[in-house]
């Protein structure tokens, strides 16, 4: 209806239109989740083992590649540390961790395919502590993959907790194609 023809609209009609619009707004269903599907799947995959995470992402690639890409950007794993943590923040993260956790994660990083992340941590912590950790890694006997996974998970959990409390900001790269 053109605006020029609205002169005959009664106040009662306007009231009914308003009530109808209000009823439609109230009819919005309550949402079961605060976050969207990308964030929910990302949070789940953040707390799974790397094998499970890779399997799920592979399956998502086959069924919905666009969604899989968004989930990859939402997750934060040990492999993401060099891209998502500012070098200046590594000493603060390290202070929150037990040295044994760093030792096991560093010792198993190459076998787990995440040596660049372990190197990034070592390069950005105090030189003396990094040298000591490198020596201990060389002296350490072979560590079990499950122990390495647990140590890396502890590091990621600590980083996530620091982020949630506002003690750390993760770097967000919107141009990241990984």
Automatic annotation (TrEMBL):
<feature type="domain" description="Flagellar motor switch protein FliG C-terminal">
    <location>
        <begin position="59"/>
        <end position="169"/>
    </location>
</feature>
<protein>
    <submittedName>
        <fullName>FliG C-terminal domain-containing protein</fullName>
    </submittedName>
</protein>
<dbReference type="InterPro" id="IPR023087">
    <property type="entry name" value="Flg_Motor_Flig_C"/>
</dbReference>
<dbReference type="InterPro" id="IPR011002">
    <property type="entry name" value="FliG_a-hlx"/>
</dbReference>
<dbReference type="Pfam" id="PF01706">
    <property type="entry name" value="FliG_C"/>
</dbReference>
<comment type="function">
    <text>FliG is one of three proteins (FliG, FliN, FliM) that forms the rotor-mounted switch complex (C ring), located at the base of the basal body. This complex interacts with the CheY and CheZ chemotaxis proteins, in addition to contacting components of the motor that determine the direction of flagellar rotation.</text>
</comment>
<dbReference type="InterPro" id="IPR000090">
    <property type="entry name" value="Flg_Motor_Flig"/>
</dbReference>
């Amino acid at each position: 209806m053109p605006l020029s023809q609205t002169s005959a609209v009664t106040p009662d009609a306007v009231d009914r239109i308003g009530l109808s619009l209000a009823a439609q707004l109230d009819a919005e269903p309550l949402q079961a989740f605060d976050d969207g599907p990308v964030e929910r799947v990302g949070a789940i995959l953040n707390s799974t083992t790397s094998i499970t995470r890779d399997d799920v992402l592979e399956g998502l690639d086959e069924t919905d590649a666009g969604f899989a890409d968004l989930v990859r950007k939402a997750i934060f794993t040990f492999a993401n540390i060099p891209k998502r943590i500012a070098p200046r923040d590594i000493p603060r993260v390290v202070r929150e961790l037990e040295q044994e956790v760093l030792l096991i994660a560093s010792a198993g990083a190459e076998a787990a395919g995440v040596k660049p992340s372990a190197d990034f941590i070592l390069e950005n912590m105090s030189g003396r502590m990094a040298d000591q950790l490198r020596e201990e890694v060389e002296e350490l006997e072979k560590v079990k993959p499950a122990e390495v996974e647990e140590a890396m998970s502890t590091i990621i959990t600590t980083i996530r907790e620091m982020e949630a409390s506002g003690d750390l900001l993760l770097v967000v790269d919107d141009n990241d194609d990984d």
